[in-house]
Amino acid sequence: MTASPAGPESRQAIEAQASEFVARLQGDVDARARRAIHDWIEADPHHAVAFARMEAAWEAGERLRACPPPVEAKPEPEAAAAPHPFLTRRNILIGSAAATLVAAVGTAIWRYAQDVELYRTRLGERREVRLADGSRIHLNTASTVEVSLREDSRRVRLVKGEALFEVAHDPNRPFLVDAGAAKLRAVGTAFNVRIREAVVELTVTEGVVAVAENVAAVRRVDAQRVAAGDGAVIRGGAVAPTVLNPNLLRQRVAWQDGVIELDGETLSQAVDEFNRYRDRPIIVGDPRLANLRVGGRFEVDEAAKFLTAVEGSFPVQAITANDGSILLVMRS
Questions:
Q1: d(Cα 179, Cα 137) in Å, to the nearest integer?
Q2: Among 13, 72, 127, 266, which has the minimal tally of Cβ within 10 Å of its Cβ?
């Protein structure tokens, strides 16, 4: 479910309010006012979009005043009459602007929250973060979270990567997790969240997690819930529950022990898992190999052991390239 679009009149009011807030933030603003602005941005996705747009316009105006663009010569008639048949400059600008706006909306809400702490891990690193409320966040490789503990709520934003949350019970301060398209509310629980390329993957190991597409919806008592032992994939407002057997549940959180568990995954999927911990990737160079089914239990830094097992079980050859990457091809 998505938020209903604002009508013309309300859009105008929202944009006026966003413009006023952006202008006010250029001067001295006390903590109470910043909190009010943060709450307004967070209250409605249209507020966040309008604020990000106004802020971008303000910054663009500042840059133009500081460095006006040079006067451009008129284009030659031939060049102007021969645009690229598929990729025009306007299309590029629209695409770039849309991507920038989406990113800005994601950060605008958090930029004006108070006391945001940033925690991250490097490639191949795992880390445990203990929060002041007693909760713990376990970060997997190349992951980033922002944490804001307030008197009335606990907010975490998983910016990228994967994290497992062990939430300390506090009935007066809900524990809310923002992970891309997913908004999650813990109900005294432990759960794993992974931002994949196309979806957000939720795995609940203890208790219950409420799932929705925005903060207001996830706070409601009728928000969709996922119980321990189950999971969900979330994308664009759609929440698809997934029933997990014990083996799959253990497999999804095996990274906490520094382990990759494979149980019938394709070779491509297995390679993707190992590449999460490597700066020099393994590449499946022959599409005929991509769907080979593999299994086994390996430490996250045991890619060499994994490749030896693959070469011993299938007609596969691993070739190390000059840049350190490893190419998998069909053995002749």
A1: 14
A2: 72
